[in-house]
């Protein structure tokens, strides 16, 4: 029972990070139907920028408490990641909006590779230990432990999600975004500037990804130049799972995926009599994806894009 | 003589002489040529799925892996070393002949392709892409972990001592003397792979103009219309998956025999993405374009590896060969797509569906 509770906590934490990343994916996909493969790299940049900032602060500003360092570095990471993603969109995707569908996909892959290489040049291809900035003493909930970092992750996710719901559902920008997703040409007739909306989407996505990246690094205690790849892929899976283009779907998909992964990896050994172990954790995401898409091709909450070729 | 015949003769002589010239500069260059040829075959195989039938497959490398591991298992001491039962059955060790391995791998990969195809038939576009990607990852994770409890793939360590090709009494792993001309192993492989590649090109051309090929293109252009015209879209799609995969399987066998070593590392997602990029970069659905794309993306980076030395010294080691290589490939992918979204050498008439409808 304790194992189950523990895995649920781990799954929620993992899932909330997936949800943060998946939001960026799903918004971009909803508006311009592009799998932004470079999204995971934005996460990686966020984590590494924050690592550099924290290193600087630990050397020169020792009077700051750990949580302040984390927050300040996160802010800097968000701003820089937003700038980065803004530029990525302008350079690699903007010109290809009306091109064959595969062209932007290839530039996205190229951009992902490019950003990884740049990160490798800036930070050298080594694993960076991310310092523990928050207290490490865990809290106990019915025999399961939860660390302050995990609590922070959960609360930041909830706050970000609430903000996103507000922005997309109740602001002018949000209305413009939804209108552009529906039809860019009609939206522009209504006085919406699709270019601006798309840029804003990329900026918001980048901020969420950077937050997730910093949290990811803080939670697992490490940052490196290829760290964005797998979370990015899983987050996309989560977005598809929930129904791509749908914000609530991304969150539900992310959390469910996190739970499935955590519970699956906790029990796979027992279930298969020790034949398969926790090294198979990563296949859950993909198996879930295949099953879901076979049974319900538009995802759990999706309905719009089911028939889009 | 006919102009066409002269053209073909020139190409033939060119391909015959090329490795002989390259080997003057060292076997490494011939090796690069060999691998480039393999990539051409892979890209042509994927072109059937993506270019003709319009099914974006990001897990193509899985079939390559199926062929490579299939051959490695049947033509290396690995199985006899780890399973006493098999060792008892084959006291000499399992050494399957290439004549058996090729059709076997072809069949195995084709079956895998069809199995993958069945559940994802209903999906299209990006959804299909992401599911095939997931499928490729699942295969890779299994390859990486199937060393326990039964040691089948030897995990991340990979399978070594894979038999080289033996054909017509020629051992491809040893150098041979022909009219006083030393022909090293890599050059022999070059000729073998060239034959296979030409066969692939031939099959692709024949497919393109056949009923099947036109059926695929009809599906690519408009699936609903194709169905209305009496094309069995389900079977045609499965056929595309199967045929594409079988090419991958054959390439896998060649790769295993050529390297003598197979490990999951060679079949990462990046490899799949690389092959898709070759197809798209060159010109989707256009055979010469795809070949050009494969040559550019496979050979260029290898050549750069040799040129990068001085650059590395210039930048004080910050920009080493591997990084420079990756940087250039990535920039090439972005720049080429921005300048020529339909590929460097697109097909002159097909590819209407590639223009977005809305």
Strand order across the largest sheet of chain B: 1-2
Report the β-strand fraction of chain B as a percent range.
under 5%
Q: Order of SSEs of chain A, N→C?
A: HHHHEEEHHHHEHHH
State the helix count of chain B: 14
Number of H- or I-type helical stretches of chain A? 11
What is the spatial order of strands in the main beta sheet of chain A? 1-4
Distance between the termini of chain B: 51 Å
CATH fold label of chain A: ABC transporter involved in vitamin B12 uptake, BtuC
Helix content of chain A: over 70%
Mean pLDDT of chain B comes to: 82
Domains of chain A (count): 1
What is the radius of gyration of chain A computed over CA atoms, rounded to a whole number of angstroms? 19 Å
Uncertain runs of chain A are 305-309
Mean pLDDT of chain A: 86
CATH architectural type of chain A: Orthogonal Bundle
Q: Could you give a short description of this structure?
A:
The complex is a heterodimer of chains A (about 300) and B (about 350). Chain A is mainly alpha-helical and about 300 residues long. Chain A is built from eleven helices and four strands.
């Amino acid at each position: 029972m304790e194992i189950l509770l523990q895995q649920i906590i781990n799954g929620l934490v993992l899932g909330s990070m997936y949800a943060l990343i998946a939001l960026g994916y799903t918004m971009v996909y909803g508006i311009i139907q592009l799998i932004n493969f470079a999204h995971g790299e934005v996460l990686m940049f966020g984590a590494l920028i924050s690592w550099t900032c924290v290193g600087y602060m630990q050397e020169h500003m020792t009077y700051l408490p750990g949580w302040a360092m984390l927050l300040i570095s996160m802010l800097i990471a968000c701003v820089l990641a937003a700038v980065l993603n803004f530029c990525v969109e302008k350079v690699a995707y903007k010109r290809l909006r009306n091109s064959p569908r595969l062209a932007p996909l290839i530039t996205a892959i190229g951009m992902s590779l490019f950003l990884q290489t740049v990160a490798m040049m800036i930070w050298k291809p080594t694993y960076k230990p991310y310092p523990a900035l928050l207290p490490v003493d865990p809290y106990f909930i019915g025999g399961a432990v939860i660390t302050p970092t995990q609590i922070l992750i959960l609360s930041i996710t909830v706050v970000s999600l609430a903000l996103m719901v507000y922005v997309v559902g109740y602001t002018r920008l949000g209305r413009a975004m939804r209108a552009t997703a529906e039809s860019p040409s009609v939206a522009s007739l209504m006085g919406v500037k699709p270019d601006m909306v798309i840029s804003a989407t990329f900026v918001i996505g980048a901020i969420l990804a950077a937050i997730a990246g910093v949290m990811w690094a803080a939670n697992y205690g490490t940052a490196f130049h290829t760290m964005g790849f797998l979370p990015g892929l899983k987050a996309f899976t989560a977005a598809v799972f929930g129904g791509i283009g749908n914000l609530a779907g991304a969150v539900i998909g992310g959390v469910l995926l996190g739970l499935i992964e955590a519970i699956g990896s906790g029990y796979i050994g027992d279930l298969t009599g020790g034949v398969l172990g926790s090294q198979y954790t990563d296949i859950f995401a993909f198996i879930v994806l295949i099953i879901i898409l076979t049974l319900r091709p538009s995802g759990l909450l999706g309905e719009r894009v089911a028939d889009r070729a | 003589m006919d102009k066409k015949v002269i053209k073909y003769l020139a190409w033939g002589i060119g391909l015959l002489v090329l490795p002989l010239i390259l080997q003057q500069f060292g076997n490494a260059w011939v090796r690069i040529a060999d691998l480039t040829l393999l990539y051409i075959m892979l890209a042509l195989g994927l072109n059937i799925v993506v270019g003709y039938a319009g099914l974006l497959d990001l897990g193509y490398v899985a079939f390559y892996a199926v062929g490579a591991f299939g051959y490695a298992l049947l033509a290396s001491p690995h199985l006899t070393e780890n399973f006493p039962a098999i060792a008892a059955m084959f006291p000499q060790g399992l050494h399957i002949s290439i004549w058996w391995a090729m059709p076997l791998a072809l069949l195995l990969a084709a079956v895998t392709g069809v199995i993958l195809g069945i559940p994802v038939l209903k999906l299209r576009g990006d959804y299909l892409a992401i599911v095939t990607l997931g499928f490729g990852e699942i295969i890779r994770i299994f390859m990486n972990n199937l060393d326990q409890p039964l040691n089948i793939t030897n995990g991340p360590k990979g399978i070594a001592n894979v038999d080289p090709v033996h054909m017509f009494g020629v051992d491809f792993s040893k150098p041979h003397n022909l009219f006083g001309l030393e022909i090293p192993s890599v050059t022999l492989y070059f000729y073998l792979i060239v034959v296979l590649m030409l066969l692939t090109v031939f099959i692709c051309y024949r497919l393109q103009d056949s009923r099947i090929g036109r059926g695929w293109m009809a599906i690519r252009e408009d699936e609903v219309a194709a169905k209305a015209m009496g094309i069995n879209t389900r079977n045609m799609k499965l056929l595309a998956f199967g045929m594409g995969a079988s090419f991958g399987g054959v390439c896998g066998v060649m790769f295993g025999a050529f390297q003598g070593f197979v490990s999951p590392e060679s079949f990462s997602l990046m490899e799949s993405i690389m092959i898709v990029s070759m197809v798209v970069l060159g010109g989707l659905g256009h055979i010469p374009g795809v070949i050009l794309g494969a040559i550019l993306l496979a050979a260029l980076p290898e050549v750069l590896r040799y040129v990068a030395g001085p650059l590395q010294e210039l930048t004080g080691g910050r920009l080493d060969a591997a990084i420079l290589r990756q940087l250039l490939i990535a920039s090439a992918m972005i720049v080429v797509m921005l300048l020529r979204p339909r590929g460097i050498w697109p097909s002159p008439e097909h590819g209407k569906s590639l223009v977005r409808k809305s």
